Amino acid sequence: MTEHSDYQRLRAHLAFLRMAAAAEALPGLLDEAAKTKLSNQAFLERLLAVEVDAVDERRRVSLARFASLPSPFTLADFDYSAQPSVDPKLIGELATLRFVEDATNVLLIGPPGVGKTMLAVGLGHAAVAAGMRVYYTTAAELAAKCHRAALEGRWATTMRFYAGPRLLIVDEVGYLPLPAEAAAALFQVVSQRYLKGSIALTTNLGIASWGKVFNDDPMIAGAMLDRLLHRSVVINIDGDSYRMRSHRARAEATRNAVKNS
Ligand code: ADP
Ligand code: MG
Question: Are 200 and 105 in contact (CB under 8 A)?
Fold first, then answer.
């Protein structure tokens, strides 16, 4: 009788604490504990471990959803032989995520198709897997969001939003020239994260041409670069486009097939 009411109270405690996974596992674990004469300590450890795993999994799923990473590719998927200008040791070092600990930025610079987004997103997945808050945006998306925020009186909230993640990925800076307002928004995002949170930024523009992104405003471009580069890892990728490469390989194979037929 008391055992029964103990059990009911235990269920009620777990429900009150919203430990649904532990509550669900409870009957099975109690049976097992009785059968294998588990110590109180071992039983409690197993029960809590079930809940810890469930909470951890939920957190990871929610972090992954929040991060909005545009592709599932991880750093392990990167083919270094196709891109000799990318040093696997450097990427390996970045994959330890120490750069996030000290708010170092990562700048990936190179022409289209060389894997800039893939590497930035791969770093994003690694950080999510380590339980860090990550957020991916393109520069154009950031500009549009900030524009809307300014119109709707949500500027401060939006700036706080971009300050929040441990790692902010800003993809495709320089593909489109940013209007003055957008350049100011990006500048403020970079400034408020300066020495506090990492940015992984991809761009097709060499650092010397950054004035172009910012409407030929060399002041804002210079001030932004100062902050971005002060503590940074710069990865210049100057190889061939990966897409074009497989394209060329296919074309080559087709040509050879025709030649040899
Ligand atoms: P970028 O951002 O530099 O324009 P992406 O990262 O979008 O280039 O890469 C273009 C496509 O080629 C993507 O599908 C990407 O996964 C693939 N890709 C690029 N470089 C590599 C690489 N070294 N190994 C494997 N896939 C690659
Ligand atoms: Mg890209």
Answer: yes
